[in-house]
Amino acid sequence: MKPIDYLTELSFIRRGGTQEEFNAANMIKSWLEDMGYNAWLEPFDILDSTPGDGELIPIEPYGESMFVRPVGLSKCGEAEGHIAILDVSEPEFADKKNLKDAIVFMQHYPRQKWLELFREAGVAAALTVLGIHMEKSVLTLSQTNAAEFGNELLLSSISYDKAIKLVRNKVKRVRVKLKQEKYSVKSHNVVAELDGESDRQLIVVAHFDTTPLSPGAQDNAAGTAEVLGVAKRIVREKFARRIKFIFCGSEEKGLLGAKSYVAAHADQLDKIDLVINLDVGGNPFSPIIFRSIGTQELLNYVKGILHQKGMTGNFIEDIYSSDNMPFSRRNVPSLAIARAGIEYKGHSPHDTAELTCNEALVDIIDATEVILREIANSKFLPYERKISEELKKKIEDYFAERK
Ligand SMILES: [Zn+2]
């Protein structure tokens, strides 16, 4: 099979924790076995919910009931209160007294800082106003916030056209009723390993799950196909370092597969010399971007060995919102390789295989193979295994924002 064949076969909706994601995991496992690898699934638990159903009824003046969508993993129940519009950019600017027992309307995603404000102010319920074209999307609490606020706060989204009607009609009081089912499901990582002469490790990772409505070709059947392509090229070889291929589930739900891997293999993390993450690809016109988390020495090294082989791209030291982050948070250097560009349709129903080609995938497979072989064969690590203070801070800020 060519890389594009893997991508094409994987381009179906495969949301974290669903049967479709499990099917994709087993397809990846069997492709690895066909190449000659020993591959296995590593399950982990995640909280999930049905899309849910809700209504909002204007009480003062009385009006017609309207549909609202509960925020996934938030509390079920009913509440009545006065409307408070939270038209501020940050929680510290909010008038907390006015929020007490209120039904709050705001345009922000229900992230940690807002949830803390709602708890502190004692709101009755809070609604995020969504653009009209976003009405079908389901907002969901992160796993961390679900554990902390999921049994406490009534949260929902409402589309802009409905919300503005309430303002125009000078509605003062409303009642909301929200219901959804919450349950625990299993998601899976797929792992395969190439034995090495030492216990030092290199990891190549890609997530294979999608958002709820997207067939996820560029994001990230592409990266999955690229990792499979790399694995195929080096099967049955033996390097100084062992190489692990990890295909992560539930990345789109908050890097859950990578977080679970890092937690389950905490004793191995100091043996990993580099994590290479392939997330987003398939467009041959866009430059390949190499984002390193380490020191300038790592980035210069990568750039140097690629230039020697006549390969190029954009090289920057930066974080990347993907599966290398949980590793780098634990001091493992990483390199994220991606190309998006024109016609990037990630997270939408339009992210289909027709917008990708084999050539674009092979470019990234070539570059990854060069980097991997060089480092895997080096007796002494050719760069300092360290993350700069500046990047460490960026990583901490990233996780604080996304709790
Ligand atoms: Zn992705």
Quick structural gist:
This protein is an alpha/beta fold. It folds into two domains: 3-48 and 185-401, Aminopeptidase; 53-180, 3-Layer(bba) Sandwich (Glucose Oxidase, domain 1), CATH 3.50.30.
Describe this structure in words.
This protein is an alpha/beta fold and 403 residues long. The protein has two domains: 3-48 and 185-401, 3-Layer(aba) Sandwich (Aminopeptidase); 53-180, Glucose Oxidase, domain 1, CATH 3.50.30.30. The protein has helices at residues 3-10, 19-35, 96-99, 112-121, 143-149, 160-168, 217-234, 256-264, 296-308, 325-329, 358-377, 389-401; strands at 39-49, 53-60, 66-70, 77-85, 103-106, 125-130, 155-159, 173-179, 182-194, 201-207, 242-248, 272-278, 289-293, 314-317, 334-338. The strands form two sheets. An eight-stranded mixed β-sheet has the order 1-9-11-10-12-15-13-14, with helices on both faces. Strand 6 (125-130), helix 5 and strand 7 form a beta-alpha-beta unit. Helix 1 crosses helix 7 (217-234) and helix 7 (217-234) packs across helix 11. It is elongated, with a radius of gyration of 23 Å. It starts with a helix and ends with a helix. The site of zinc ion has 7 residues, from helix 7. Zinc ion binds at residues 207, 219-220, 251, 279-280, 322.
Overall mean confidence score, pLDDT: 96
The proportion of strand residues reads: 25-35%
What spatial order of strands do you see in the largest sheet?
A: 1-9-11-10-12-15-13-14
Helix fraction?
25-40%
CATH C-level class of the largest domain is Alpha Beta
Number of strands: 15
> How does the overall form come out from the CA principal axes?
elongated
Q: How far apart are the termini?
A: 39 Å
Low-confidence stretches: none
Q: Structural class of the helix and strand makeup?
A: alpha/beta
Rounded to an integer, what's the Rg over CA atoms?
Answer: 23 Å
Count up the domains. Answer: 2
Q: Helix tally?
A: 12
CATH superfamily of the largest domain: Zn peptidases
Q: What is the H/E string?
A: HHEEEEHEHEHEHEEEHEHEEHEHEHH
In the CATH hierarchy, the architecture of the largest domain is: 3-Layer(aba) Sandwich
User: Biggest sheet, open or closed, and with what strands and sense?
Assistant: 8 strands, mixed
* CATH fold type of the largest domain: Aminopeptidase
